[in-house]
Every structure is written in structure tokens, then in C-alpha cells.
Amino acid sequence: MIRDQCLLIFVSLESWDDIWRRNQFVCAELARRYPDMQILFVCPPRDVSNAIRTRRFASLRGPNNWHPEGFPNITVTRPLKLLPSTLAVGRWINDFMTRAHVRRAAQTMITDHGSRINTNQKLEGNAGVPPASPVESAALRQYSNSYLLTTNSWASSVVLWLNPHDAVHMVGRMGESRVIYDITDDWTQFTHFTDRKALLERTIAEDAELCRRADAVIVCSKSLYESRKALARDIHLIPNGVDAAHYRCVLDDHGPLPEACRNWPRPVFGYTGSIHGDRVDVKLVEAMTVAMKAKNIPGTIVLIGPVMLPMQDRQRLEATGRVIFTGPMAYRDLPQYMRAFDVCIVPHCMTAFVESLNPIKLWEYLAAGKPIVSTDVAGFRDYPHLVRTARTADEFLNQCQAAVAEGTEKSELRRAEAGKHSWRSRVDDIVSVMYT
């Protein structure tokens, strides 16, 4: 059962921004469901040394703490990373600064929340909060004055949720009663580490230690479950989900398309998500465009999302004249642009890293109802009656052509399947793990 005045310290791999991922969905659902739960969403640190090295100082600007619109009980905070982490002393100082920052932010949250309770004010957008009892008020004052978050009155109500493996240094130092390690990607299989042996070894060691020390480990895919079940004391498979209603307009809205996508040459083979070389198979996409030109097949490949490809890869794809990069797109706007898709595509690399994923786009594509073509990767291959799969560029293009001719016969089947995988049901499972 959720405790009143619970504090959830949620350390995320990703920032809170307009592009919603698993962490935002989970925290938003918890915040709506439990208005008295205080959630401290800890973003990746602002990296001072990287900003100086790259001369990109914009990343250091902006508020340190803020409330996302509509969520007064969520505080988003950004620690400061002062030194490079390549040396042990730099990591030690950065870790120390992160812990101190999180403690201060948590202290401020509880102090503010305690004041609101004691004055019986209403939280913005939520029902009124009843006055605290004398015992609760005393506990609040004692907790607020404790910099280390270790008072007995409140330690039993602090849950520490860790998404990044290198946050293992926080375990046992936040006054928490329970530690949850949520693994969404298998960074021990990340190909970027191929030529960085020391970083790979540290990643493997931190991940294993956190698996052992966490009270519960949550994983999002079967691959992660199999690879971590021998390390974890208590492990749970909870895949990603979807707000299916958010994507109803992809098929149901027949009004004008957003201006930016009205002139995309049809058919449109569309992708949504982060665009970097460890997920998107650049060679496969390029080979598709070559085959389309050689066979005089019309169409455009549209890639929606933050672009993290090397510049030469991006320029090579754009030079084909068949690939369009839109850049990042806010979650609220995404379905309107997906209306322009004829086929939703997943040209993912077929690697151990990708195999560890449970892509949110699987459920979002199903909720959209349009035909889907994917490489033979985890998640998508589990729905052969709803998703077409391919292993080569020629196969992929052939399947895209077949998908265009498919029509809407499977649209309702896809949307019905998506409805079985709501974020609400996923959070039901998460809550049972948090408070076992």
C-alpha cells in the first residue's frame, strides 16, 4: 500500500523534456494516481567539462529545479557534473556533488510539502490536503532539518529508483528504505564500448553490483530478464506500455495534416524514436533508397526524432533525396505527423544491444493502427500476424510495398492489442514491486 507523504527519488538516464519515454510515463502515472507522493526526478547532470570542451554552453542554462506542467508533486532537478569521469578522482567528486545536490533538492521538497500540509492549502491541480497530525508535523520538521535524509521518522518512506547503472554510488546514502533498479537497455552490450575496454569493464561491474544490492530489479525485456536473473535477489519483467488513446487520431482524424508533412512524397515509410547508429541501421536505410531508385519505386523514408548520427551518415542519407530528418518532436504533436505515414517502420540493427530493448514504439505503432514493417528484432517478431519482418534491405522494401497494399484490414486488431498494454496496467505492476 502506498504510504502517505512518500518520497520517490527517481534517478533517470534521460532528461524530462517534450520527448516522452518510459521514465516520464511511469512518473506521470504515479503522480496522477498518488497526489501526496512527492517525486524528485533527477536528470542526467549538466556536464561542465563537456560544455567547455565542445563550447556548447547552452546545456548549462535553464533552471536547476522546476515542476513539469500539470504535475505539482513532481520536481525535476539537474545536478552538476564538474569534472571528466575518465579518472577515478573525477568520478568521486562528481558522485559526491550529485548526492549532495539530490539531498538538498529532496530536503526542499519535503520542507515545502510540509508547509503546505501544515497550512491546509490545496496542491495545484489536486484535491485539498488534510491538516497533518501533531506527530506528522513533528516528523516533517525533523525530516526537513535533516540534510542526510536519514531520520527514522522518514527513512521508511523514501524509495530510491535507479535507472543508470553508474548511480550505484547512491545506494544506502539517501536514507531510503527500498532500492529499485530499472534496466531499460543492456549497456554491457553497447557497441560504442568496443574500443573502450575500461569503460565496458566498469559498466559491467556497476551493473552487477547494483543488481546484487537492489531490493528489486525491474527489466523491460526477456533478454534482460535472462541475463540478470542470476545476479538479482528479486527480479521482475515489466515491459513498456502505451497511452493508446493518444494515438487514436492517427486513423480517426481526417482533417488537414500539419503543414510540414503535407508535401512528403508518398508513400511515406515513417520512423519515430532516437536516431543513432546503435539503433537505426544506416546501411540498411541507404540500401533501401538505392533499391527504390534502381527499381523506380516511389516513396520517402521519414525519420522523426533526435538525430545522433555522425554528420557523414546523416549527409549520406539526405543526399539520396529519399530520406527526410524532421528532428525531435514533442510527444503531444507526434500522432498528427504519424497520420502522414503509410507504413510505420523499424529499421533497427540486429545486435545484442537492440535485442535487449522493449521498444515503446512497438506499442505506439500498434496503437496507431497502421501497417508495420520491422527488422527481425525483439518485440516486433512476437506479433507476426500484425507486424511484417525482414532481415535485408530488399526484403524490407518488399515488405513495405506489401504493407502499402494491405489497407486497413488489420488496423482494429493492432489497436485492440495496444489496448492490452496500457501504462496504467504497467504501473500497477510497478507499484506492487515498489511496496512489496
Task: Specify the CATH homologous superfamily of the largest domain.
Answer: Glycogen Phosphorylase B
Alpha-carbon Rg, integer: 23 Å
Helix-residue proportion: 25-40%
The count of helical stretches stands at 16
Widest sheet: strand order? Answer: 4-5-2-1-7-8-9-10
Mean pLDDT: 88
Number of strands: 16
Beta fraction of the residues?
5-15%
The largest sheet is: 8 strands, mixed
Overall form: globular
The quaternary state of the protein chains shown equals: single chain
Task: Briefly say what this structure is.
The protein is α/β, with parallel strands linked by helices. Helices cover 38% and strands 15% of the residues. The chain contains 16 helices and 16 strands.
State the main characteristics.
alpha/beta; Rossmann fold; 2 domains; 6-stranded parallel sheet; 16 helices; globular
Description:
By secondary structure, the protein is of the alpha/beta class. It is 38% helix and 15% strand. It contains 16 helices and 16 strands. It has an 8-stranded mixed beta sheet, with helices on both faces. The protein has a 6-stranded parallel beta sheet with strand order 13-12-11-14-15-16, with helices on both faces. The longest helix is centred in the N-terminal third of the chain and has 31 residues, at 88-118. It starts with 6 loop residues before the first strand and ends with a helix. Residues 119-156 have low confidence and may be disordered.
